[in-house]
C-alpha cells in the first residue's frame, strides 16, 4: 500500500515554522513515504476577518501563485523519489460559501489533493477560531451555553461543510472531523456524541468523500488522541470510507509522526 502523508503545512503558514519545502520532502523520503501533499491553509475569503489575535490563521492571497509555482518545481525535481501533490486546507466558513467557491474556481485547476476543514464557528453573531487556544474555547462554551451545545454546533457545521456546494473543485477530504475534542482534558465530554458523529460519517459515505486521519491531537497536551479517535476511525474504515493519514505537520520533524496508529488501524481486520 502506498505510504502517504496527506496533510502537511509549509513555510507559507503564518503560524508555522520557517522549515523549507525541501526539508519537509527530504524528511518524508527518510521516513519512507511514497506521496506527500502540501495542504497550506488557503487564504481566508474576502470580507471575513480572522478572529485570532495575530490574524495569522492562513496564507495570504498574494502568495498563492508563488506557493503553487514553488511546489510545482519540486514536484518535477523529486518525481523519481516521491510523489508531491499541490493542495490546500480550505476552511468551510458559514455564510462565505460563495467567496470560497469563487476562490476554488480560480485555483482549483492547479490542485491535486485538498482538505475541507472547520476551524471557525459563528456563535451569537461572531466568529471564533475554535482550536486557537483553551481560553477561546472556554469563551465559546460560555457563549454557546454549554459544552454539549458547542459540540452540537461544531458537528452541525461539519455536516454543512460536507453538503456545501463549493463547485467542481471542492476538496474530497474532510479534515479532522473531531477537532472539537482538542481541549477535552480541560473540558471533559460527559455526554454522548455518537448520534452526531454517525451523521457525519454517513454523510461522508454518501458524498463519497475521504476522512483526514489526523494524528496532530496526539501531540496536543489537552487532547491526547487522533482526529477522529480510534473507535470512530474504525467505524469509518468498516464502512470502506477512505482514511488518509495526515501528520498535520507545521514543522518537518513531525512528518510521519505516529504513523503506526494509522498503519495498525487500516491493516486490522
From TrEMBL:
Pathway membership, UniProt: Amino-acid biosynthesis; L-histidine biosynthesis; L-histidine from 5-phospho-alpha-D-ribose 1-diphosphate: step 8/9
Record keywords: Amino-acid biosynthesis, Histidine biosynthesis, Hydrolase
Catalyzed reactions: L-histidinol phosphate + H2O = L-histidinol + phosphate
One of the Pfam families matching this protein, by short name: PHP
GO molecular function, one term: histidinol-phosphatase activity
Gene3D superfamilies registered for this protein in UniProt: Metal-dependent hydrolases
InterPro entries according to UniProt: Histidinol_P_phosphatase_HisJ, PHP_dom, Pol/histidinol_Pase-like
EC code(s) of this entry: 3.1.3.15
Domain PHP: 5-206
Family annotation (CDD domains): PHP_HisPPase_Hisj_like (cd12110)
Record family assignment: Belongs to the PHP hydrolase family. HisK subfamily.
UniProt xrefs under PANTHER family: HISTIDINOL PHOSPHATASE-RELATED, HISTIDINOL-PHOSPHATASE
Protein name in the entry: Histidinol-phosphatase
Name of the gene this protein is made from: hisJ
